[in-house]
């Protein structure tokens, strides 16, 4: 069961699962905590996972005034402090990966490692044109199903459209009791479209894994590669045959890879503890 948490005056809906090293899962545009269901279920035997609704998504209210990626990163930092988590492995997807980058830059002491899935550091002309289309699409599409059918063309593989997975995701989204408003979608989208950390990423000093889907239209691998090349020591990997949201399409592949990465990060600390005994 989830609960509302006061994160330094901002009310955020939080889901937690499992025991072990802390992991914070940061969702992308419009996604509630439930987007991470396969990670909350599949990794809880080894980690304590926290997923939450960003401002204006799910059950977290939309505040007055413009949204910013930096402000949402501060929300994530305040949430970790409210939950008394001294530091966590941070995993961000798409817009959530933008938040994760800012979190590592603005609050480095709270970040043990980064996984950046479907990411960029500076939106390119294609990305900006795509988001401009999304901005008016949510107002002019004939109904919510049409919005999702169009939006998901950028998100999921042709395989997922062919085998019924996308239809299932659409039905689940339409049945969700806390849909995102058009205003909230547009304000989150504006924040993510204005994201730019490219010239600052060299300041990230934690182990970082950057993952890209080979078929990703929204944030193609070249954008993720540029992020990895800007972060000292970052590892960049392309997931063959996958698109923008592989943590939902192939959760077993995603979970295995991030789990292996977190074990690698944890291993030096375990080694130091063994040597000191």
UniProtKB/TrEMBL annotation:
Keywords: Hydrolase. Coiled coil: none annotated. GO terms for biological process: glycerolipid catabolic process. GO terms for molecular function: triacylglycerol lipase activity. Transmembrane segments: none annotated. Pfam families: Abhydrolase_1. Residues 23-244 form the AB hydrolase-1 domain. This is Alpha/beta hydrolase. The lineage of its organism: Bacteria, Bacillati, Actinomycetota, Actinomycetes, Kitasatosporales.
């Amino acid at each position: 069961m989830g609960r509302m948490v006061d994160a330094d005056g901002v009310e955020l809906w939080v889901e937690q699962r499992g025991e072990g090293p802390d992991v914070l899962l940061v969702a992308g545009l419009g996604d509630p905590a439930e987007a991470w269901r396969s990670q909350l279920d599949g990794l809880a035997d080894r980690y304590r996972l926290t997923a939450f609704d960003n401002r204006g998504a799910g059950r977290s209210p939309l505040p007055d005034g413009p949204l910013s990626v930096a402000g949402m990163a501060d929300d994530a930092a305040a949430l970790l402090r409210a939950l008394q988590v001294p530091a966590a492995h941070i995993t961000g997807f798409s817009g959530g990966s933008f938040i994760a980058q800012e979190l590592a830059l603005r609050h480095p002491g709270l970040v043990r490692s980064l996984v950046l899935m479907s990411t960029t550091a500076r939106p390119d002309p294609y990305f900006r044109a795509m988001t401009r289309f999304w901005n008016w699409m949510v107002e002019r599409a004939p109904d919510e199903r049409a919005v999702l059918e169009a939006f998901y063309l950028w998100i999921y593989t042709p395989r997922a459209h062919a085998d019924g997975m996308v239809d299932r995701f659409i039905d689940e989204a339409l049945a969700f009791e806390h849909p995102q408003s058009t205003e909230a979608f547009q304000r989150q989208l504006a924040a993510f479209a204005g994201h730019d950390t490219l010239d600052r990423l060299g300041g990230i000093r934690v182990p970082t894994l950057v993952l890209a889907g080979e078929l990703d239209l929204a944030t193609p691998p070249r954008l993720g590669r540029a992020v990895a090349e800007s972060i000292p020591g970052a590892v960049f990997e392309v997931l063959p045959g996958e698109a923008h949201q592989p943590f939902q399409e192939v959760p077993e592949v995603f979970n295995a890879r991030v789990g292996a990465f977190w074990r690698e990060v944890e291993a030096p600390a375990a080694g130091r503890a063994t040597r000191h005994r």
